[in-house]
TrEMBL record:
<dbReference type="InterPro" id="IPR028261">
    <property type="entry name" value="DPD_II"/>
</dbReference>
<dbReference type="InterPro" id="IPR006005">
    <property type="entry name" value="Glut_synth_ssu1"/>
</dbReference>
<dbReference type="InterPro" id="IPR051394">
    <property type="entry name" value="Glutamate_Synthase"/>
</dbReference>
<keyword id="KW-0314">Glutamate biosynthesis</keyword>
<protein>
    <submittedName>
        <fullName>Glutamate synthase (NADPH/NADH) small chain</fullName>
    </submittedName>
</protein>
<dbReference type="GO" id="GO:0016639">
    <property type="term" value="F:oxidoreductase activity, acting on the CH-NH2 group of donors, NAD or NADP as acceptor"/>
</dbReference>
<feature type="domain" description="4Fe-4S ferredoxin-type">
    <location>
        <begin position="36"/>
        <end position="68"/>
    </location>
</feature>
<dbReference type="InterPro" id="IPR023753">
    <property type="entry name" value="FAD/NAD-binding_dom"/>
</dbReference>
<comment type="pathway">
    <text>Amino-acid biosynthesis.</text>
</comment>
<dbReference type="InterPro" id="IPR017896">
    <property type="entry name" value="4Fe4S_Fe-S-bd"/>
</dbReference>
<dbReference type="InterPro" id="IPR009051">
    <property type="entry name" value="Helical_ferredxn"/>
</dbReference>
<dbReference type="Pfam" id="PF14691">
    <property type="entry name" value="Fer4_20"/>
</dbReference>
<keyword id="KW-0028">Amino-acid biosynthesis</keyword>
<dbReference type="GO" id="GO:0006537">
    <property type="term" value="P:glutamate biosynthetic process"/>
</dbReference>
<dbReference type="GO" id="GO:0051536">
    <property type="term" value="F:iron-sulfur cluster binding"/>
</dbReference>
<dbReference type="InterPro" id="IPR036188">
    <property type="entry name" value="FAD/NAD-bd_sf"/>
</dbReference>
<dbReference type="Pfam" id="PF07992">
    <property type="entry name" value="Pyr_redox_2"/>
</dbReference>
Length: 490
């Protein structure tokens, strides 16, 4: 049983990040490996609740109290087994997930929640370091084959589940390396790419075949996939970046979508190119958007040597702690989120919106004109109201639009399968995760819209279960979520 006094004896504590002056000189992960004593102490804070709401906060249904207590007693092998029972890639989620499980931690009602995410990543690190992560090839082949389009966490999770069930799985990726946004969309200071490669080695040993540099719908058609495979899973993400074409001056040189900045920066770090067309060095950078992608742009700009960085958010400054009025426990709290990149420098301005991108006579960006705003909802319609007389200018040489994604891209494979995007620009699925095309399934952001990595993995696992059933295979695979399921909310 757990230590009944653990949460009384230990306070919430995270490992110290690498010093700012050191880490902005390289691209290595911000957090160094944590000491084993610290992680055991933090795991000891878990109360092993009779009704652990952290299970509901996480769509994967991770057995959090189980592996917390195993870490507390030093049984890392069993902890790794319990963790992998519900999560194919805890080394990804432990680094990248914002941890809705912690928002739903019962201890968080009257104290700081357990550091679930940190314990998780340390279990994953130990699992690799101590050799607990081994290939698990299927004992027998099913004779069925599946094509997975897209190699992000949803596609990879589905591929691993299906391969372990004995199906022949081929993953198609249009980029030159596997990983989707994990590979080129997220900077190395959040996840170094050898972490991805280690898991891909395991999957390859389990029989998953990876085809890179292949754009389905162009290099290979939908008819080709139907002829070669018994089922197809679409997991190509939601990469259509949200833009502001109506803002005056959007056409100016120096205004870019966030991914136009992040992708070449990641490719440079990987040694795949020597220069980047969008470099923040010596520039005054404005980042529009206050979420994860905006923080990624902020950290990259620091490491590229920006002269200054200012991050804009149209919403007002949120409180530092949960107020409980509109976000009661155990729902996701609307609080101020400080990322490691924020302690590295830069300014944040809340409650403002850009009214115009200002250029010179040569069409180059030189400034932005912004105004204070309030965001209101009338009859469910979101409206941004400008405060009269609040306009001012800020110098800007580079603007990065990190205001989210509009859905999956309109790509040839959709028309070839006879599929159309819904009003949210993603694909609908029935209760079996199947699209309107027979034998064609969808999972992850391509179905859900841009969301959390835990939701992508959960949907990939659930879609794999549905495909397994569709193929008439024996037994069942775990399906942690339904196709119509939504996050825990008020």
């Amino acid at each position: 049983m757990p230590d009944p006094n653990g949460f009384l004896r230990y306070q919430r504590q995270l490992p110290k990040r690498r010093p700012v002056p050191v880490r902005i000189m390289d691209w290595k992960e911000v957090y160094p490996p944590a000491g084993e004593e610290l992680i055991r102490d933090q795991a000891t804070r878990c109360m092993d609740c009779g009704i652990p709401f952290c299970h509901d906060g996480c769509p994967l249904g991770n057995r959090i109290p189980d592996w917390n207590d195993l870490v507390r007693t030093g049984n890392w092998a069993a902890a790794a087994e319990a963790l992998h029972a519900t999560n194919n890639f805890p080394e990804f989620t432990g680094r990248l997930c914002p941890a809705p499980c912690e928002a739903a931690c019962v201890l968080g009602i009257g104290d700081d929640p357990v550091t679930i995410k940190q314990v998780e990543v340390e279990i994953a690190n130990h699992a690799f370091d101590l050799g607990f992560v081994r290939p698990q090839p299927a004992p027998a082949r099913s004779g069925k084959s599946v094509a997975v389009v897209g190699s992000g966490p949803a596609g990879l999770a589905a591929a691993q589940q299906l391969a372990r069930a004995g199906h022949a799985v081929t993953v198609y990726e249009r980029d030159d390396r596997i990983g989707g946004l994990l590979r080129y969309g997220i900077p190395d200071f959040k996840i170094e790419k050898h972490v991805i490669d280690a898991r891909l080695e395991q999957m390859a040993a389990e029989g998953v075949v990876f085809q890179t540099g292949v754009e389905v719908g162009v290099d290979i058609t939908a008819d080709d996939l139907r002829e070669r495979y018994d089922a197809v899973l679409l997991a190509a993400g939601a990469l259509a970046g949200r833009d502001t074409p109506e803002t005056p001056g959007r056409h100016l040189n120096g205004v870019h979508l966030a991914m136009e900045h992040l992708v070449p920066a990641n490719r440079m770090v990987a040694g795949l190119q020597d220069t980047t067309p969008i470099d923040a060095r010596g520039k005054h950078v404005i980042i529009i958007g206050g979420g994860d992608t905006g923080a990624d742009c902020l950290g990259v700009a620091h490491r590229q040597g920006a002269a200054s960085v200012t991050q804009l958010d149209q919403y007002p400054l949120p409180p530092e702690i949960r107020t409980g009025l509109k976000d009661p426990w155990p729902t996701w709290p609307m609080i101020l989120r400080n990322y490691p990149a924020h302690e590295e420098g830069g300014d944040r301005i809340f409650g403002v919106a850009v009214q115009e991108f200002v250029g010179d006579e040569n069409g180059n960006l030189v400034a932005i004109r912004l105004a204070e705003v309030s965001v209101q909802r009338v009859d469910g319609v979101r409206t941004v109201v400008v405060t009269p007389g609040s306009e001012r200018e800020l110098r800007a040489d580079l603007v990065l639009l990190a205001i989210g994604f509009e859905g999956t891209e309109d790509q040839p494979l959709l028309a070839q399968f006879g599929l159309t995007r819904n009003r949210r620009n993603v694909l609908d699925a029935d209760r079996t995760w199947q699209t309107g095309a027979e034998g064609v399934f969808v999972a992850g952001d391509m179905h859900r819209g841009a969301s959390l990595i835990v939701w992508a993995i959960a949907e990939g696992r659930a879609a794999a279960s549905a495909i397994h059933d569709y193929l008439g295979a024996a037994g069942e695979l775990p399906a942690p979520v339904r196709s119509d399921q939504q996050p825990l909310s008020v």
